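Look over both lines:
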Amino acid sequence: MNVIDLLNLPPSPGALDLLTVTNDRLLALGWMFQPNHTFGSIEAYLDGKPVGPVQSVSRPDVEKVFEWARNAKPLSFVIELSLEGTTPTRLDLVGRIGEAPAARLSSLIPSEADAQLPQPPDPLQERVSGLHGLPFRVQGLQMFTDLVDQMTRLGIPAAGRILDWGCGCGRVTRHFVTRLPKTKVLGCDIDRQAIEWCRQNLGADFVHVAPMPPTPFKNADVDVIIACSVLTHLTEAVQDKWLSEMRRILAPGGHFLASTHGNYAFQFSHRGGAVPGGLAGIQDSQLDPVLDGIAPPGYYRGVFQSRDHTIKACSKYFQVLDYVEQGLNGHQDLIILRRPR
């Protein structure tokens, strides 16, 4: 199965909890899940080449999280491979139902350039992800992989000026800096402390912005915008103002990739659906205290929104190219937009 075939498989809910290369050996630990099926097996591919079946392991911590799923169970795995002097660049895990490949979980493999960049202080890492140390780096690299995979699949050039809106302390931005050296990388966030750390350590242009637009960017100033877990924290009214601002600063023909908490994230958070009928429209009333003292009171929320709602809201300002369920980090949905020329 070549890399193009792999990109056409839908993303699987799941996570890589560990991914390292040490002394010519690759070690990966994680899990994959399908809401209505249980994977019979998982296969691993390095740069599109199969490297054999993956060892299943018992993970009571993961299984407990999915007790609400009556028709499926997560499949946890561990991979240990000798690279034998080779230097692969990506790992794809393909979950099979019967003989058919059903979904994938993918990541580029950590490089020396990734390791050379300094790590943010633990409080900054935990503020944006709840993680720190190696899991923080692995998560950021997996998210970067997801974004670049969708750009590759849809023919979106990773070139020009790319803005990470809501970059935090550079969880994803750092990988754009190290892996796309010819691209002009920009970042902005309302967290002044995180922005200052990025300015001093990541070698790109970072801007502190207010919680409400406008930003300092000029009209049509950037070619690609990414927003990882930003709309997931904004009310419907605030989202609308920011979508308008993103359209203003995006060049005609430019692309905008933004994640949301869709139906799977809603089920995961509510252990299968605490609200009768499941997720419909947008639920934006739940306060999130993570940015207390940084964001204005009541601004930062835990927000869930249906696919139909997201497409309708974004269509006011952009052409919708695709909506990929679990398209970011095996958890959040990813909507891919273009500003019409």
